[in-house]
Amino acid sequence: MSYLGIEQSLSGRRWVGPDLETERAAQMMRQQTDLPQAVCQVLARRGVPAIEARGFLDPKLKELLPDPRKLKDMEIAAARFLAAVAGRQRIAVFADYDVDGGSSAALLICWLREMGQTATLYVPDRIDEGYGPNEVAMADLARGHDLIVCVDCGTLSHGPIAAAKGADVIVLDHHLGAETLPECVAVVNPNRQDESGDLGYFCAAGVVFLMLVEAGRQLRARGQRGPDLMAMLDLVALATVADVAPLIEANRALVRQGLKVMAQRQRPGLVALADIARMDAMPNTYHLGFLLGPRVNAGGRIGQADLGARLLSTDSMSEAQALAERLDLLNTERREIEAAVRAAALDQAETRGLEAPLVWAAGEGWHPGVVGIVASRLKESANRPAIVIGFDGDEGKGSGRSVAGVDLGASIQRLAAEGLLVKGGGHKMAAGLTVLRDRLEPAMERLSELLAKQGAGQGGPADLRLDGVLMPGAATVELLEQIELAGPYGASAPAPRFALPDLQIRFAKRVGASHLKLSLADGMGGGLDAILFGAFDGEIGPILENHGGARFHFAGRLEINSWGGRQSVQLRVDDVARA
């Protein structure tokens, strides 16, 4: 049933509000806690019982962080890592080229630096080497090192790890495991098949952090002290948000605390990156996911693969500034490449149809560094899992993004086992694959079947989910500060969206090429400012600009706007419907 009777908004979407059970839970919570109704609606949507509401708004890391020893091989991994430190052995860190891999590598490198040791960083080239360890690189590293730690990769790397003769190997990862594990000292991964999966929400940096917690415990048992791990939570927060890990349980506390650490501006790489991105507010998950993360990723996508990890691990401000400038330029170039691929992929996907369980596109020469971002855009457009593949001759390398409740990584892994893919793997929300051209159509058809069995394609692609109704007069800075306490918001914890009904437009002003700034009023003395990004990319901008006194329902996310030392509430508009 539609919300406020909106079956089709100006953008063609149906509005869907909370169900009756959620509404009742919010009302009960309001009576039992005295929290604002809007906060109760957000908490009820998250499934938080009234008795736990206050505690949920103030997550404590010491209460939520699991015992690292819940993960198999954890004690062994930490012990071998510490033995290498104590013996002054040569350590190499083999990291994935994305934010999670770079942050994981930086955690280890910074920890070792504080212990008076250095480590060799190795990040494979996305195009020349591909994802994860390869036999040549591992054999080369083994000849010059005693211990190789693979972070954010390695769980499926049986051959490459076997090639690391003469060196011990530890894997700290979170990607889905196969029935067998590579033969090495330890594979610490909450998504191993013999794990319960209870901690499967951790990204690789979260796993690395847990290993360092265990290492600290073993050091204390010997009467020694390790580095301050709380000061490293900015890296964990960045990786958790950028890797789209669910912001649930311990991840909520890790990100909340990590944002506080980041606000102290102690890490040269993040300070330089924030400055070049003109990040002039207290850091939040939006900054991590859309300003910092893409820039860290840019090196691995279209430039030198190790730039991100080097930026995050350097203790030199001058080096950090140089790396940040280089990554910023690469990110600008990445956006241009992405725009061309996105336009072609969307056109192809729309021609094929956006109603199927899987939305996909493939093209010759599409840069492998941007196919994942484009897949994310397709997923957002269709509300379905999406795959985008770039071909170079007969072989295509692709990336996929999924929607909540649909495990894409497991399905990709099954396709590889069935011989439809050269290789593939990942986790629930994201996956990578390699496919031969003559297998493309049958592989995508089979993947669509597997995803359909998980419920993909059942939800309306146009549905806009809302947390409730809010009037402009109730949208205060104080209310928003309380709503923020229910965060941080991101994967599995979407930022609250509210409907603001029956508003008139006091004025509308075009900003830049395609945005629209609005002043809205409810006719009862309440009002607020609003911004609609990309308004003139479709029909909404011209309709609102030439409103002729008509009234509209607005839906979107409320945010605090700071300007000139004053704070005010602004609505970031997601959709509009005629009142």
From TrEMBL:
Keyword annotations: Exonuclease, Hydrolase, Nuclease
Ranges for domain DDH: 90-240
Ranges where the DHHA1 domain occurs: 361-452
Ranges where the RecJ OB domain occurs: 467-575
A molecular-function term among this protein's GO annotations: nucleic acid binding
Nuclease as UniProt keyword: yes
GO biological process terms on file: DNA recombination; DNA repair
Source taxon at top rank: Bacteria
Pfam families per UniProt: DHH, DHHA1, RecJ_OB
Family label: Belongs to the RecJ family.
Protein name (record): Single-stranded-DNA-specific exonuclease RecJ
Native source organism of the sequence: Ruegeria pomeroyi
Native organism taxonomy: Bacteria, Pseudomonadati, Pseudomonadota, Alphaproteobacteria, Rhodobacterales
Gene this protein is translated from: recJ
